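Intended use. Records like the one below are meant for learning the mapping from a protein sequence to its folded structure. Do not use them to infer anything beyond what is encoded.
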Amino acid sequence: MIELDAHLTERLHIAEQPGFLRTLATFLAHSGDSWFWLAGLLLLWWRGSDYWKTRALTLVVAILLTAGAVFLIKQVVRRRRPEGEWGKFYRSTDPHSFPSGHSVRAVMLAVIILGLGPLWLGLILLVWAPLVGLARVAMGVHYLSDVLAGMMLGLLIGCLVLLVV
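Structure written out for the chain above:
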């Protein structure tokens, strides 16, 4: 199973291939960064209507809880990231790859927005979330199994958050 994971991961790897797909993968890989989402949600909370303030606060709390869960799992599993040059910041600040925090966060956000609304945004995030995970594999900072496990964890956390709110 590990060999199949490594083989499929290598087939998706495009980090050293210049062109449109690499540019798109780079954009998508970064679009799931927690700082980006936290900054946007804090701005939405500060400037938004009560409708958006409630959603922004829910999502900020969910992102922070998700980060804690991912950190704990990474400390237990301690799987090294795939070899590569792209993503030096990620490699230096977090050398562990399982599960993909970006994938957890992306799916969790999509699930919560699908549940709370607006529906149009939830549908956009539903398309975006798996692309973030695939981009993380394409850029060489995760194995495919890291992303798949992250997506399942994001689905679980998103559903749990919806049960609580």
